[in-house]
Amino acid sequence: MNPAARPKDTSARSPFAGCAILIAALAVMVFLIGFSILTLFRQFNEIAKFTDEKPIPIPVTSLENQELPINQLAERIEAFRQQLSGDSEASLALSAQELNLAIATYDAFKELRGTLRVHSIQGECLHLAISFPLNGRPRLAHDGEPGWIASDQRFLNGLMIARPNLLKREVILSLDTIEVPHKKVAPEFIDQMSPYRIAERYLSDPALGPAMAKLTRVGVVDGKLVLTRRPGETPADMITDAQVDSASTRLFTALGVAAVCFLALASVVILIGLRGKARQS
What digits encode the pLDDT tens for the residues 68-81? Predict the structure, then answer.
């Protein structure tokens, strides 16, 4: 055995490489956690610029002296439901006033009361007055609050302009813009929020879910929201899965790029360390 080779074999078994890899892995994990937290807080700071600490009351249509319009609306909805149960063409057109009346009348829509109202229907879009609660900056929970992390609630008060569409037999809203008085809503927030799945909660409803699944198109015609089922027509999703997942894709892409850059840097540091160790041997 060559005596000169023994120190070299000993250096080859040095734990430096394993420790360096472990340290690099831990550093990458800490970096990604820090990067995620920083991104989250930056997002909260941007949201705070166009939201308010308190909601703006959204009017709910009064049901006083509305017996006749309520009965007429109920008859039209029931006729539409009966048409959907058969094989003939079915269509239901609802004005802004009728949509607001439905929100105020039917318990299925009670969660929308005070947070959303159809302001008007113009062109191909619904103009919706909204006051949506949003989670604000995270903080330590106060006494009586569940868990140890809570958040201060913010409210998105403004006018949402959106086009109704279908996504896999679900009525959704494709957002054009959100207008907030004296403030500008970040385009990235609108992109992340669109499509707004306003009817997602009704997918499991025993009445609304099956009825919505039978629609083949939804849109705006002559200032009214029109729900349609045409026999033999295959509903075309106006919003793709890629658009639904676009916000998440952008976030994971950013994290991936950051991770790759950091891993490359860590690899260079490890390589330099290993070469220095080899020269010392």
Answer: 999 999 999 999 99
